[in-house]
């Protein structure tokens, strides 16, 4: 039962509304495909609330009816309250989406339904994330740490993971400077103070340069802004950097140069993605889709490329 | 004082021993730079234990001496035990390295020293990670979640984060199939059952194909194996895929095609990196190094490229 339920939920997610339009530069006339959206505003904005009246799968078996479940649960180190910590991580982007706690029943249910389920300490009971909001979290894999008291749900969320509507629960950054402790950030501007790993941080920097181009500026444009304003140059650079990456191998330029040229290629290619409104999350999702599929079979499954 | 301490620690890390050599294929003769190491074996293997006799910074101020610190700490929701959960995440790869708990004193110390510090529930006291092993964790940024009871230390580790010597604390995967609950993985083969997000998972797949090439096989080689065995083909494909990514913009082929071509380019470029023993972590580290540096200034700072 829960499988058809899941595919229903996934269909709703797949058909989510297109991302909102933002103004563009004039070069759209030259490159008609240059997209009008900012991929970051899509990635970071609140997802639409799903209105599905879905209830949690009703057919969860008690742990004693599942082969090996009581043994697995008994090997965990639950706290005095009967809980272990659970970290929910995005399978594609690596973002930490939320952290909560689970009891035996919640882990049993999560393993069976593959929907992130917890024990709510405030409500003192079972909590299947998304049951009321529609923002379920699809759990791909479950991991237990070395001390057996901390769990990772490696997951694909189908909506915002935070009850505020933000993409993740962390949007408040604390720093210490000579002036003392400062805290910044709120859920309405989630991206500004979220824990961004390097790739996401680079993507956001490119998106911010794009946004800044909407404002008049007298300063010399950044290299990113020049690329964004000149798609022909961006394409030229992507081809050039690909060649330079190849040369690191062909001319034995060394590991350091190879890492540097790959960084160049990645950055320029990400500018090209921004111009088309494509996020790295979408690229990673596509790479995951192909995982375990033979390259030859995968290639054959695609539509013919435009000539 | 702690700043010079940190730079000392970082120097030790920078001068860590080179990665171990593994056998290579014959094509090394054609491409002399093709590296003899598997980047994954480096990324996933245990780091060398640092032997620095470093002690924790001694000059941590009490919270009441730091402007804004008592106010910040008082806004957190500590448990009855006086703790909040802390998740340590790798700033470049996004890996969740470890999860522990912190009290007021640990957070105060972490913000001041920028070394990940916790409250050890087993030892019932202060725990600066790395103080005995040398495997300190450098904290770049600190984030508080929406409920103010869960913290992220966005970090750069200088050694293994797990007390077992594994890269992270999660190397045990639990799954449920028709046969019941299965658990797999141990710290000596960390990568096999670690929570791998899409990019790291792809990197590992490529590395596994490379390893498999050392064994005789009668089956048809995978596309990845063909690329790994033919660096000329791999270079040709990287140039070709870069061109196809550019065409998605130039010929308005649409967002889906752009994501797909970027996935192609990324995959082929990562094969090229594997051939040179370069990990994505190194590429991401290089991208982070450039962050906040003007592209023009950064370019000028590099050595002249070999012609």
Question: Overview of this structure, please?
Answer:
2 copies of one chain form a homodimer. By secondary structure, chain A is an alpha+beta fold. Chain A has 2 domains: about 15-45 and about 195-290, MazG-like (Helix Hairpins), CATH 1.10.287.1080; about 45-190, Phosphoribosyl-AMP cyclohydrolase (Ubiquitin-like (UB roll)), CATH 3.10.20.810. Chain A has 10 helices and 8 strands. Chain A has helices at about 1-15, 40-45, 70-75, 105-115, 200-210, 225-230, 230-250, 255-275, 280-290, 295-300, and strands at about 85-90, 95-100, 115-120, 125-130, 135-145, 150-155, 170-175, 180-185. In chain A, the strands form 3 sheets. A 4-stranded mixed β-sheet of chain A has the order 2-1-6-5, with helices on one face. In chain A, strands 3-4 form a two-stranded antiparallel ribbon. In chain A, strand 1 (about 85-90) and strand 2 form a beta hairpin. The two termini of chain A are about 45 Å apart. In chain A, about 45% of the residues are buried. Mean pLDDT of chain A is about 85; it is low at about 1-55. Chains A and B meet through helix 3, strand 1, strand 2, strand 5 and strand 6 of A and helix 3, strand 1, strand 2, strand 5 and strand 6 of B. Chains A, B: It holds the Pfam family PRA-CH.
């Amino acid at each position: 039962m829960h499988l058809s339920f899941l595919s229903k939920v996934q269909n709703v997610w797949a058909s989510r509304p297109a991302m909102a339009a933002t103004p563009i530069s004039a070069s759209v006339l030259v490159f008609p495909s240059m997209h009008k959206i900012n991929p970051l505003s899509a990635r970071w904005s609140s997802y639409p609330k799903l209105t599905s009246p879905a209830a949690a799968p009703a057919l969860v078996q008690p742990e004693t009816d599942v082969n090996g479940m009581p043994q697995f649960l008994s090997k965990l180190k639950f706290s005095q309250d009967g809980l272990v910590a659970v970290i929910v991580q995005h399978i594609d982007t690596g973002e930490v989406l939320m952290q909560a706690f689970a009891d035996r029943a919640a882990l049993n249910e999560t393993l069976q339904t593959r929907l992130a389920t917890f024990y709510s300490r405030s409500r003192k009971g079972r909590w299947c994330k998304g049951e009321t909001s529609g923002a379920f979290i699809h759990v791909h894999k479950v991991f237990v740490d070395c001390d057996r008291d901390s769990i990772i749900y490696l997951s694909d969320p189908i909506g915002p993971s935070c009850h505020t509507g933000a993409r993740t629960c962390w949007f408040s950054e604390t720093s210490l400077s000579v002036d003392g402790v400062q805290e910044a950030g709120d859920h309405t501007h989630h991206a500004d103070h979220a824990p961004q790993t390097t790739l996401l941080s680079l993507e956001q920097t490119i998106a911010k340069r794009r946004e800044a181009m909407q404002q008049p500026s007298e300063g010399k444009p950044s290299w990113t802004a020049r690329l964004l304003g000149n798609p022909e140059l961006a394409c030229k650079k992507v081809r050039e950097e690909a060649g330079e990456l190849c040369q690191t191998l062909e001319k034995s330029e060394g590991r350091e140069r190879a890492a540097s040229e790959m960084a160049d290629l990645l950055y320029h290619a990400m500018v090209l993605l921004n111009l088309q409104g494509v996020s790295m999350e979408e690229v990673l999702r596509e790479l995951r889709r192909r995982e375990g599929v033979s390259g030859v079979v995968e290639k054959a499954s695609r539509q013919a490329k435009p000539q």
